[in-house]
Input
Amino acid sequence: MRIRDEDLTTACVAHGTVKSVHLPTDRETDRMRGFAFMEMSTESGEAAAIEALDGAEWMGHDLKVNKAKPLENCSGGRKSW
Output
């Protein structure tokens, strides 16, 4: 079963308004990479979703839910001098 954006939105809407969902896929296989990004409209909704869903079983998967960390260095290549 392929998880859709709508599935994640439905799972989180009880905790607040979902602003966006992104399910990254592998460029070569088009298969999901096993994680997702979700943006909630408020910090309280975000905290409630994390509290409720971290460690929960959902659609046959054990969830690990946390706040995304910002990328430190997005250049992806050599450091420029």
